[in-house]
């Protein structure tokens, strides 16, 4: 090991890269609103945590006072951009080398004088106590390290859906993310800290190890027995004695080989001890974290290998995307107890978080440059409680996303291309949505850079934010738009479309009423589907809409695929309609304009007429041209004024509007607004309708519900249509009845 | 020792024949066998048992002392010369050593009385020793060399199961050698820590930890009922291997001597180095090692430590790790008696006391660490017994 240590001395000539790649104000963001600081100082890395309030521009819609007969009568509602204050958690990780610079920067930008203490944990908390107190003028209040780690671990497991993953070196996708299990306990947490003082040297040692051959240093079973030791099930390649071959004075061993042997020795030993503890306490989940892991494929592989070997697969080695932050998160939570942070749900902000970076020896230069500098995690507080839909058949196995792009390389390549290709259009619309703000183009340009950078990162590290999915790509774009104060780029488009569609509402309803019952049912379904063609979010459609604004509802109906559709359960649905009405239907709606007004509302109207109560669930916040809860409130009011069926429905609370809790074009049925979930339970909902590509195809296509369900969507993407064996504007109409319920099931299903 | 030899199948009191390992015989000292039948089944001299380990070859040799004049005449010259060579010397070649202090005198084995000798040499010198045997024309003798452990496959040996030999050897030596087994009284009090004999009369269940180059941990429930619980590659070979790399030493003895002069706390980072004292919340005393070799990340500290410190830290690291794993196994298997054997413990009181301390301290007195005087030779003894069984 003298030679091992020699690795350090040979590299000590390397001057530490002290350049801070990002300007500090992009690292320590919102310091002016910051309060409640916590710091976790390890042997080599410092993790800073603080809470801030973020002022966001949000688009609000407000109904005009129609009784006043104002001049605005050509517009349905008023859009105003308002400031909204939301809570955000900031976590920043940097090397101890920068600690003084960082403290100085923080001091200069700290405005809030209420802050008196800083919670501190980690081995270095003691060492840097005086420096922190002197620089920041805050009293250092130390917290127990282990307690902080556990608190932090519980927090990330509860709040970040794809936090934990298993690592498989030779699989198509090395990272397999675990879906959040409703019950996170019990688990074993193994923190492999070190007090390693210099990151680079440690990483270089690992790189060295990855090039070595441990068999020249280690004594293997076959070196002793000539082969395997069959009766004990010990294979010949198993290490019998680590460093057993180096017990000789007169032989030199390559550094790489010794480093590799050491790595195996330490990893196996940790794995073995972890297994023994897991067995003793009867635990099957073991999370590994700490400096030794830090996303290193090499150590994750050796630890996983060791755990698999010693437990024969009974215990799972799990790693965490934010393992480095656990102590800081825990210390922060200790300090913020009076704010009850655990009462809220928090969501990872993709725009402000760096994501998991690999430090593998063959990583690309872009990441290499970053790995030695700053890493950030930001989490936004959700103002409302999120819970799972009570109607999920098996909540613990529910995965919202239909395709995991981390595993499906072909699909990943397409969608990354697709999102990059659509970026220009998004930027243009963002600018157009704020015609009165001269600096909008500049901000839009920043948005473009940020999102493009995210896409590039994801191309290299698809697992950076957990499983890569169409949903995560869409959500990342929304987060980036919000970050640059484009809260609702489609607000004006939505407004115009809603206005237009509303003019045709009565005509459409009357036309439907004229039809015989049988014909009307098909027309209603076709109407929802045709309405769903109107979607600015889908590139194929936005092209047509932009080039030909006259593209109307009737035209859309003609564009629709003839029956039988790509997935066609209409006959089963029709049979069902002949039976008793549903008690209550929960309808997750999609786009504004033609979709909601001419497609969905008439369908809902028919349900109401059948005696079925309807809960309309729409987004809490804007996403693309999806109708928001705020907009839908106004729309239904206006429709109610024209249509007594809707009016009485609203009045008698047989038609209810709720927010979904989401601001995404997709839908995660395990994170829905609590009010929605309560209502669903109270009204004994027995039908769930999910509409649109984002909610019914990209997500929830395979979602199994404990009641009847309808998934309706038009495929507005030719690549996806191709993949599904259909064509552009192919229709998916999936009607499912849970197993055991007496009804014909439509087994027509396509593998996505 | 009656009952040890495989006897005439028709003879009552004898166990079932056959080499099957599942049918074990008991060491029934009351079984009386007629001398002629014993003689019939007795293997020809010389009687050897060998255990080829990753680092050392352990050889036990039974020297008959009851040779009759008639036998003396019959005895071929080669056999005589082996006997003389082995018993008159205490060192063989450059590296072979006879552990005279372990010799068992006036032992009765298969109806013969004699002395049991314990010899060891490095595994890497095995070819030299075999050549020596050839030079002395040992190979002309009708000898079956019963061997356990590893060894090159090219060698034509009667190979036996290592762990069976080990257990058998432990039980046999303990039955013939008074005060073979001992423990340390007051292991957590250095001033009053003394060696005391431990009668291993009813040894089951026991955890048998064999620390050779690597480590095997066996749970033994009876002579025939045992399992390998786990093992670790961090064993005696690791200690010596790392010591050679770190200090440039070349032998186990050198490494141990250096370790005895060193101070591991200069190399290791202790709990108190991080927390300033005990980590009370989790019951970690300040003197506990928080990070083995943890201080060696600092350049200044690297410059202040001696080779002896490094050797001591290596010894402490390896020993504590074995202690940790052993303790967890004992908890999982619900066994309180832990017997440590293997050549890592040879002349290594430091490690023995450390293990005794660790077992006692971390189990709050629940676990007892036991040691055996013939540390590393039990596999070879087991192999010899097997020879006498199955000849």
Fold and architecture overview:
The complex is a heterodimer of chains A (752) and B (391). With 752 residues, chain A is of the alpha/beta class. Helix content of chain A is 41%, strand content 18%. A seven-stranded mixed β-sheet of chain A has the order 5-4-1-2-3-14-13, with helices on both faces. In chain A, helix 3 packs parallel to helix 5 (129-136) and helix 13 (409-421) packs antiparallel against helix 15. Chain B is α+β, with helices and mostly antiparallel strands and 391 residues long. The radius of gyration of chain B is 23 Å and the shape is globular. Chain B has helices spanning 35-41, 69-74, 77-88, 126-135, 162-176, 236-247, 252-261, 271-275, 299-304, 307-333, 349-362, 378-390; strands spanning 47-52, 56-64, 91-92, 96-98, 104-109, 112-122, 146-149, 158-159, 181-185, 194-197, 206-211, 215-220, 226-232, 269-270, 289-291, 337-341, 368-372. The chains are: A alpha/beta (752), B alpha+beta (391). Chain B: This is Pantothenate kinase 3. Chain B: InterPro entries: ATPase_NBD (IPR043129), Type_II_PanK (IPR004567). Chain B: It is found in: Cytoplasm.
Q: What's the main sheet of chain A like?
A: 7 strands, mixed
Number of strands of chain B: 17
Number of strands of chain A: 23
Strand arrangement in the largest pleated sheet of chain A: 5-4-1-2-3-14-13
Overall 3D shape of chain B = globular
Approximately how much beta-strand content do the residues of chain A carry?
15-25%
Which two chains share the most extensive interface? Answer: A-B, 56 and 55 residues
Helix content of chain B: 25-40%
Round the mean pLDDT of chain A to the nearest integer and report it.
85
What's the Cα radius of gyration of chain B? 23 Å
Distance between the amino and carboxyl termini of chain B:
15 Å
TL;DR of this structure?
Chain A: It catalyses: (R)-4'-phospho-S-sulfopantetheine + H2O = (R)-S-sulfopantetheine + phosphate; (R)-4'-phosphopantetheine sulfonate + H2O = (R)-pantetheine sulfonate + phosphate; (R)-4'-phosphopantetheine + H2O = (R)-pantetheine + phosphate. Chain A has 752 residues and is α/β, with parallel strands linked by helices.
């Amino acid at each position: 090991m003298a030679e091992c240590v020699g690795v350090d001395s040979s590299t000590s000539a390397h001057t530490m890269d002290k350049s801070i790649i990002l300007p500090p104000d992009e690292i320590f963001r919102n310091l002016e609103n910051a309060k409640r600081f916590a710091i976790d100082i390890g042997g080599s890395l410092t993790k800073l945590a603080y809470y801030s309030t973020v002022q966001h521009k949000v688009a609000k819609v407000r109904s005009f006072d129609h009784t006043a007969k104002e001049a605005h009568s050509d517009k349905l509602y008023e859009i105003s951009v308002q400031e909204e204050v939301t809570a955000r958690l900031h976590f920043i990780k940097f090397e101890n080398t920068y600690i003084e610079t960082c403290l100085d920067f923080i001091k200069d930008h700290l405005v809030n004088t209420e802050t008196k203490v800083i919670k501190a944990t980690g081995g270095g908390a003691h060492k840097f106590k005086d420096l922190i107190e002197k620089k920041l003028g805050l009293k250092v209040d130390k917290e127990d390290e282990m307690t902080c780690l556990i608190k932090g671990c519980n927090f990330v497991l509860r709040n970040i859906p794809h936090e934990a993953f298993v690592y498989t070196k030779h699989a198509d996708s090395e990272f397999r993310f675990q879906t959040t299990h409703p019950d996170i306990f019990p688990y074993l947490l193994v923190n492999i800290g070190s007090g390693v003082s210099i990151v680079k040297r440690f990483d270089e040692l690992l790189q060295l190890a990855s090039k070595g051959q441990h068999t020249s240093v280690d004594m293997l079973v076959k070196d002793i027995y000539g082969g395997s030791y069959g009766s004990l099930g010990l294979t010949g390649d198993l290490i019998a004695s680590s460093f057993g071959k180096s017990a000789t004075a007169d032989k030199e061993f390559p550094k790489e080989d010794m480093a590799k042997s050491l790595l195996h020795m330490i990893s196996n030993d940790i794995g073995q001890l972890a297994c023994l503890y897991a067995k003793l306490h009867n635990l099957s989940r073991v999370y590994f974290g700490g400096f030794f892991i830090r996303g290193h494929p090499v150590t994750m592989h050796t630890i996983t290998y060791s755990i698999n070997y010693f437990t024969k697969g009974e215990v799972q080695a799990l790693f965490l995307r934010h393992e480095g932050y656990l102590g800081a998160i825990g210390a922060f939570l200790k300090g913020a107890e009076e704010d009850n942070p655990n009462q809220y749900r928090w969501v990872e902000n993709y725009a402000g978080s760096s994501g998991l970076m690999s430090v593998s020896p063959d990583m690309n230069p872009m990441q290499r440059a970053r790995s030695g500098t700053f890493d950030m995690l930001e989490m936004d507080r959700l103002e409302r409680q999120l819970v799972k839909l009570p109607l999920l058949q098996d909540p613990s196995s529910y995965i919202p996303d239909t395709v995991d792009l981390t595993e499906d390389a072909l699909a990943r390549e397409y969608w990354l291309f697709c999102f990059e290709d659509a970026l220009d259009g998004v930027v243009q619309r963002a600018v157009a949505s704020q015609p009165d703000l001269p600096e909008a183009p500049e901000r839009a340009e920043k948005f473009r850079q940020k999102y493009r950078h995210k896409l590039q990162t994801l191309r290299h590290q698809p697992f950076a934010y957990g499983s890569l999915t169409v949903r995560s790509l869409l959500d990342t774009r929304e987060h980036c738009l919000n970050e640059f104060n484009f809260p609702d780029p489609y607000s004006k488009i939505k407004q115009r479309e809603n206005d237009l569609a509303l003019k045709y509402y009565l005509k459409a309803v009357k036309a439907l009423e004229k039809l015989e019952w049988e014909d009307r049912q098909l027309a209603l379904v076709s109407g929802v589907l045709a309405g769903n063609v109107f979607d600015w979010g889908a590139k194929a459609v936005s092209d047509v809409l932009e080039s030909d604004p006259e593209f109307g509802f009737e035209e859309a109906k003609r564009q629709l695929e003839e029956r039988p559709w790509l997935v066609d359960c209409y006959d089963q649905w029709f049979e069902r309609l002949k039976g008793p009405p549903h008690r209550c239907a929960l309808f997750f709606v999609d786009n504004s304009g033609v979709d909601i007004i001419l497609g969905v509302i008439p369908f809902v109207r028919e349900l109401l007429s059948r005696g079925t109560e309807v809960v309309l669930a729409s987004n809490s916040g804007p996403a693309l041209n999806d109708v928001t809860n705020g907009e839908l409130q106004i729309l239904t009011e206006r429709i109610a004024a024209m249509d007594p069926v809707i009016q009485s429905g609203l009045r008698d609370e047989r038609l209810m509007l709720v927010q979904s809790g989401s601001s995404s074009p997709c839908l995660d049925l395990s994170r829905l607004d609590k009010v929605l979930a309560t209502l669903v339970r109270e009204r004994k909902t027995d039908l769930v309708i999910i509409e649109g590509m984002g909610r019914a195809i990209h997500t929830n296509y395979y979602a199994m519900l404990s009641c009847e369900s309808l998934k309706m969507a038009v495929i507005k993407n030719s690549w996806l249509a191709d993949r599904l064996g259909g064509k552009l504007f192919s229709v998916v109409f999936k009607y499912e009845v849970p197993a055991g319920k007496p009804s014909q099931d439509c087994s027509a299903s396509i593998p996505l | 020792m009656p009952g040890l030899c495989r006897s005439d199948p028709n003879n009552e009191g004898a166990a079932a024949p056959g080499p099957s390992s599942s049918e074990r015989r008991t060491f029934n000292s009351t079984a009386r066998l007629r001398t002629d039948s014993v003689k019939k089944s007795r293997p020809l001299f010389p009687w050897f048992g060998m255990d080829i380990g990753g680092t050392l070859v352990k050889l036990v040799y039974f020297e008959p002392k009851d040779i009759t004049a008639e036998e003396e005449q019959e005895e071929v010259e080669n056999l005589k010369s082996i006997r003389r060579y082995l018993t008159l010397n205490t060192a063989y070649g450059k590296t072979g050593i006879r552990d005279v202090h372990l010799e068992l005198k006036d032992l009765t084995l298969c109806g013969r009385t004699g002395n049991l000798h314990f010899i060891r040499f490095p595994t890497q010198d095995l070819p030299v020793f075999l050549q020596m045997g050839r030079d002395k024309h040992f190979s002309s003798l009708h000898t079956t060399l019963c061997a356990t452990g590893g060894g090159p496959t090219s060698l034509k040996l009667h190979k036996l199961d290592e762990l069976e030999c080990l257990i058998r050897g432990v039980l046999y030596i303990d039955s013939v050698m008074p005060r073979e087994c001992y423990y340390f009284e007051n292991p957590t009090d250095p001033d009053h820590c003394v060696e005391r004999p431990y009668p291993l009369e009813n040894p089951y269940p026991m955890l048998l930890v064999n620390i050779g180059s690597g480590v095997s941990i066996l749970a033994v429930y009876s002579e025939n009922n045992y399992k390998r619980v786990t093992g670790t590659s961090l064993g005696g070979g690791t200690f010596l291997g790392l010591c050679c790399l770190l200090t440039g030493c070349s032998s186990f003895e050198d490494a141990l001597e250096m370790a005895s002069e060193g101070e591991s706390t200069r190399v290791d980072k202790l709990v108190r180095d991080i927390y300033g004292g005990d980590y009370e919340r989790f019951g970690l005393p300040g003197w506990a090692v928080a990070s083995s070799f943890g201080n060696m990340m600092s350049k200044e500290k690297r410059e202040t430590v001696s080779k002896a410190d490094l050797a001591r830290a290596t010894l402490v690291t390896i020993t504590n790790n074995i202690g940790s794993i052993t303790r967890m196994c004992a908890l999982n298997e619900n066994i309180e008696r832990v017997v440590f054997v293997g050549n890592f413990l040879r002349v290594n009181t430091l490690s023995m006391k450390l293990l005794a301390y660790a077992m006692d301290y971390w189990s709050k007195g629940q676990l007892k660490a036991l040691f055996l005087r013939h540390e590393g030779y039990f596999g070879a003894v087991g192999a010899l017994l097997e020879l006498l069984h199955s000849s």
